[in-house]
Amino acid sequence: MNDLYAVLGVRSDASQDEIRDAYFSRLRFQELDTEEDHARARDVREAYEVLSDPERRRSYDASNGIWQPAPPAREPEHIEHHHLLNPVARLTRNLPRGWRITIDWIVTIVGAIAIVLAIKAWIVNPYRIPSSSMEPTLHCARPGPGCEARFSDRVLANRFIYHFRSPHRGEIVVFETPPLAKQRCGAGGTFVKRIIGLPGETWQEKSGFIYIDGKKLLEPYVKGDRRDTGVSYDARKIPPGEYFMMGDNRSQSCDSREWGTVPRKNLIGPVFFVYWPPNRLGFR
């Protein structure tokens, strides 16, 4: 028998694609003018028929002492890959299809709610500005006293940053008020103010201007017509671990001047973004 690989002009380790290409290439340029041409064409066709059939090729190779690597074993298709299923799918695979779909939706919805709650609790939380104490930096909605906007600003506070650094003077912060705030302001709970004094410092107000450790504090965020120009407070020291808070709208702000300083543990986080209304969108 002829060397079938030589007939097609390929190596003994040629792939099926190489064998097919060699066969059609030979056919394309094969002339059939003589009996010898027809004989060569039969040899080419026979070689292709044997070498293109894996079983016949292995038999031919074995009879001619040609070694070929065994093809990789195929994994039976009927095996169920339970290890690839998610935990819910594994637990519910024996239930009716309708139940599986219902349970999958319930788990998806509960998971989404849990993620949202976790983000609000530990990462970012939205807040609405309810009063004019931070005007004009942050707006509240008319017809509230002193409010300048049609809609209240809605802001995002970073709830995790103070786990990695200390609060800075000048930051607008969301915090839980001390108990005295409800008595003095008529409202308590969560406030938004600006950090003015830091732990261990001494603050004082003279005719509406703030002094920290005897030095006048520059406050470009406070407009002249919003200062308490007729108000003064004697110098007071801020206790360790506590912060002195004030609103930018000093004449309308019930703040640390009334209910005292705020402990570090009460600080929720700094305001960093206004997300509503659209014309107020931006970082703060």
Helix-strand layout with pairing:
Layout: H1 4-8, H2 16-29, H3 35-51, H4 54-63, H5 87-92, H6 97-122, E1 124-128, E2 154-158, E3 172-176, H7 180-185, E4 190-197, E5 202-206, E6 209-212, E7 215-216, E8 233-237, E9 242-246, H8 256-259, E10 262-263, E11 267-276, E12 282-283
Antiparallel strand pairs: 1-2, 2-11, 3-4, 3-11, 4-9, 5-6, 5-8, 6-7, 9-10, 11-12
Describe this protein's structure:
The structure is a single chain. The longest helix is centred in the middle third of the chain and has 26 residues, at 97-122. The termini are far apart. The protein is rod-shaped and about 120 Å long. Strands 1, 2, 3, 4, 9, 10, 11 and 12 form an eight-stranded antiparallel beta sheet that branches. Strands 7-6-5-8 form a four-stranded antiparallel beta sheet, with no helix packed on it. It has eight helices and twelve strands. It has three domains: 4-63, DnaJ domain (Helix Hairpins, Orthogonal Bundle), CATH 1.10.287; 82-122; 124-283, Ribbon (Umud Fragment, subunit A). It has helices at residues 4-8, 16-29, 35-51, 54-63, 87-92, 97-122, 180-185, 256-259, and strands at residues 124-128, 154-158, 172-176, 190-197, 202-206, 209-212, 215-216, 233-237, 242-246, 262-263, 267-276, 282-283. A hairpin with a 5-residue loop joins strand 11 (267-276) and strand 12 (282-283). By secondary structure, it is an alpha+beta fold. The protein is 31% helix and 20% strand. Helix 2 (16-29) packs antiparallel against helix 3 (35-51).
